[in-house]
Amino acid sequence: MRAGAGKHPRIMGIVNVTPDSFYDGGRYADTESAKEHVRRLCADGADILDIGGESSRPGAKRISEQEELDRVCPVIEYAARNFAVDVSVDTCRAKVAAGALGAGAAIINDISALGLDAEMAPLAARAGASVVLMHMKGAPETMQDDPVYGDVVAEVAAFLEARAEHAMRAGIAREQIIIDPGIGFGKTMEHNYAIIRNMERFKRPGYPLLVGLSRKSLIGRLYGDESDRLPATIALNAIAVMAGADIIRVHDVREHRLAMEAVTMLLRVPDGSLI
Hints:
Elements (H helix, E strand, L loop, with lengths): L9 E7 L14 H14 L3 E5 L12 H18 L3 E5 L3 H10 L3 E4 L9 H8 L2 E5 L17 H18 L7 E4 L8 H9 L12 E2 L5 H4 L9 H13 L4 E4 L2 H16 L7
Parallel strand pairs: 1-2, 1-8, 2-3, 3-4, 4-5, 5-6, 7-8
């Protein structure tokens, strides 16, 4: 257990307003279905909603900026106006982020760590928005084509620290920066488990740490059939939180909220104490 633990992790509920996301593609592709999903996630106890309009699954194809804006902005505006929850936009395009911030988002979740659009960092700095900087090797279209690392943990950690420095040079306040090692983005199953096993390494720079592993292939590949991925998702998120994760990005908010109550209680008990 990490020292000083005991703070309840923030639960980020996923809202994919897309037809092709890996787990829930098409379920909430229209605005009304997405709004209903927002209501459900908030009722289930989400602290943050992460709303995205373009799939970043392996092999995903790009859509136009306008289509992405049309998908996310009505849902973001609805969530921000009607619920006491922080709203994040999952995008790597500055134009989309600007529209989302105008609609009420406060966080930019950028899978490229501000690297794909040169206007993203200045936009976030001007707006005072929080940013999630995620590690991805390559692009969604090609990221799973035989990714190779010398030391995946060291390389991902160094990348995130460098991108955080870049963000601060662009004028983004340190306290607005969140880092994400990018489980499933340009990594083999073994790479992903190495990152989870060494999660404490990503806490050393002192930035809040987000982990997004919900129902991903690092779980699916453990099974020979379409077994339920939720139990292993909760187990791995519990391990990540015990190692210091501050935010967990999940599809199943209620189940994680209940599980994290137990994890948080465990972390609050001092080592060696008797109750």
